[in-house]
Amino acid sequence: MRRTRSSRVIAAAAGILTASLLIAGIVRTAGPADAFAATSKATVINYLRSITGSSIVSGQHNKEPASSPAQYTQQVRNVTGQFPGLWGGDMMFRADDQANRQRVVDEAKAQWAAGSLVALTWHACSPTVGATCEFDGGVKTQISNAQFQEVVTAGTALNNTWRSRMAAVVPYLKQLKDAGIPVLWRPFHEMNETWNWWGGRPGANGGAKIYQQMRDYFDSQGLDNLIWVWNVQDNPTANWAQYYPGANYADVVSLDVWWKSHPSAADYSQIQSVAAGKPIAIAEMGKVPNASLLSSQPRWAYFMIWSEQLLGSNSTAEIQAAYNLPRVLNRGEINIGAGPVTPTTGSTTAPAARTGKIRAVAADKCVDVAGANAANGTQVQIYTCDVGGSAQQWTVGTDGTIRALGKCLDVAAAGTADGARIQIYDCNGGNAQRFTYNAATRDLVNAGSGKCLEVRAEATANSTPLQLWTCNGKANQDFTLPA
Prior knowledge:
Blueprint: H1 11-14, H2 17-24, H3 41-51, E1 56-57, E2 59-61, H4 71-80, E3 86-90, H5 95-98, H6 101-114, E4 117-122, H7 145-151, H8 157-178, E5 183-187, H9 207-220, E6 226-233, E7 252-257, H10 265-275, E8 280-285, H11 291-296, E9 300-305, H12 309-312, H13 316-323, E10 328-329, E11 348-349, E12 354-356, E13 359-360, E14 365-369, E15 380-383, E16 394-396, E17 402-404, E18 407-411, E19 422-425, E20 435-438, E21 443-446, E22 452-455, E23 466-469, E24 479-480
Parallel strand pairs: 1-10, 2-3, 3-4, 4-5, 5-6, 6-7, 7-8, 8-9
Antiparallel strand pairs: 11-20, 12-16, 13-14, 13-24, 14-15, 16-17, 17-18, 18-19, 20-21, 22-23
Helix pairs in contact: 6-8, 7-8
């Protein structure tokens, strides 16, 4: 993370640019941004997966003061004539900023209603200092290994203090849950760094543990709207995976880019290796992306420019160019649940209606209704492709349904756990029966869970059932749809 207090010398000049840019025709104008409806975290995760490989959401962080929680987002508007597709805020650390947490939550609601995704970071004060603190000595501080172990050990004084700090944030996050707003929640960021009190602690009892404990606690508080974003920095330390809390704890895997202007090819490769098919993002960067970066590294789902770095590290021409790149999705170009408004090659939307065979690529077999039995609950499996049989004739609908024998492809009991059974069932319009397809990655993703269809255990034998599983990029999750 880059914490600077530089004056915004460009800001005043930038404020007069928007009208002239629009008149000059430099700005790509988006269509009107419809308010996002209340939705689930799975819908947003599915959206991020759907644009992977073809598009990237623009984002802007807004640091303190919390009394002005959209000041840097407005700078983007002043320079480009557009709003970012993602708004970033913070739960803060100073007393005056924590006193304005409600302003941050209200801004998050307004940004979502306007058509921007919502991301929140938390620069938490160390439990060894007061509940409010200055950045230096409070967030940017070191604690001993013994103190850290006390923080993550139930019943200790530091653990009790830390749990009270987490509890103080819960009511604000619950407001967003009650409003139906999924939040890209990024705690304990830059876990491989040592500037912060939680960082630089690899292994099961280090940063991964405190991350897991927060998720377990917030889950127990019913905060199922949080999209858990795990994060490291692009510093020279190797093996980012040693800080990873595990696939069951992270929904998005992200990188902060401060050692370099843009992620290196090695960074891009390593973050994908850790993600194992989950969406990846650039959660902080100072330099805006360019066409070369997005062409060579197309799988980033969103980027977020750090507050004052927008104008401090970029010329107005660079910012305008970034926001006008064909791959970049700004507010008004994001359609939650159905892919981007104007999808490019390889993007995912509800598939166009057509009928034919769905093939499991690795097994070289077809998706099949067992025994051609049209009864509710009949297993869906793979089987040698036949000629003209009704059990392998699937109609892929524009509404996201996939139908055979008059029934819909269905996740049994609307399950969301890895291993959930796939069957056919009476069509009912639920998300357990809606799927999106990414032609670039060949994934079929369930709308209700954000997880992928796969052939169980990577098997290739006839009658091997399909199941739901966390998307991981393996070949048993590759399918082709009817032409």
